[in-house]
Every structure is written in C-alpha cells, then in structure tokens.
Specification:
Layout lengths: L1 E7 L4 H4 L13 H13 L7 E4 L3 H14 L6 E3 L16 H8 L1 H9 L11 H21 L3 E6 L1 H11 L4 H5 L9 E5 L5 E6 L1
Parallel strand pairs: 1-4, 2-3, 2-4
Antiparallel strand pairs: 1-5, 5-6
Length: 201
Amino acid sequence: MSQLVLIRHGESQWNLENRFTGWVDVPLSPKGEQEARSAGRKLQAFRFDCAFTSVLIRAKETLRLVLEEIGQGTIPIEEDKALNERMYGELQGLNKAETAQKYGEQQVKIWRRSYDVPPPGGESLKDTAERVLPYYAKRIRPALLANKTVLVVAHGNSLRSLAMHLEHLSKEAVLELNIPTGAPLWYELDSLGEVTSHRYL
C-alpha cells in the first residue's frame, strides 16, 4: 500500500480579500501560514519520500512550512506549473462578491464549480484536469506504484481535478466538491494505484 497526501495551500492574501487569484503569484496571509503549520502538525506521524508542488509561492511556502513542522526539510521536491491553480482569465483579481453582483450568483457558481464551463479568457476544471492528470500519470503515480509516501501541495482546482480522478467522481458530484485550505486529505492506494481509503486528517 502507498500513501498520498494532498494539501491545498494555506489562505492567501487574496483568499482573505475574497478575490479570484488563479495564476497571480500572491503570498500566504498570516492565517495561511498558521494553517500550513497546523497541517504539518497533523502529519507528524508521516515520513514522506518525495513532494510535488506548483510553481506559485503560496503553494511552495505552504510546503516549506509543512515540512519544517514535520522536521523533514531535505526530501526531493519537484515544482511544476502543471499543478498551478486554474487560470481565471478576466476574473483574476476581481472581488468574488462584486463579480456575483455583476454576472449573477448562479453564473459565478457555474464558472467556479462546473466541470467544463470556463470563465471569460480562463480555464474550466476540465482544462485544468487536462494538464494535472497527465502530470500525475507521468510523475506522481510512478512514485505511488513504487510504494512511496507522497505529498502534493497545490490549489483548490488542481486538487479538485485530481480528487475527481482518484475518487471516480462524476461531473455533477465535482460541482459540490470544495477542498479547504490547509486541510490534509489522505489517500491509501493499492498496488494498482486505486484508492482503497481516504479521509481528511
């Protein structure tokens, strides 16, 4: 059995300000730093063989703080833009409440949560999955098949697309899937890479 832990980065400054962030490289808020350290404390019993993260500072800093808390600062780490948050296009930087007033709450929910409807100039979850899942298959899954314990620190939508794949969720089910910031999501996988158990720690 191998183990995979997914962590959405801690609260960023733009999460705090209720803005669409996407590919904008926004740092963690003070609360986000605390969330990252709290995640690390929940993972004290783990010894990770390797870690993967996006190239965005909020994910990289969360990973650094998690590993610091565990006392595991020297494991192999791979950064790749394939794990970046979905690109929100014209919505990036906009306040979510103001955007809902402008376009309607239902339209904004569809942009944020649907599988294949992109925001103007941005990526849908389907688009995000089309870069996340090949990367998972090429780089992360082989480590799991080698019976390694793997940590992935990324973003709400890159991790939603991965969780959808791992848990075999439908397009309808993924609409309601929300991965909270700084909450470790643990998976146990069998020798074929199929999930046998999962839960938040």
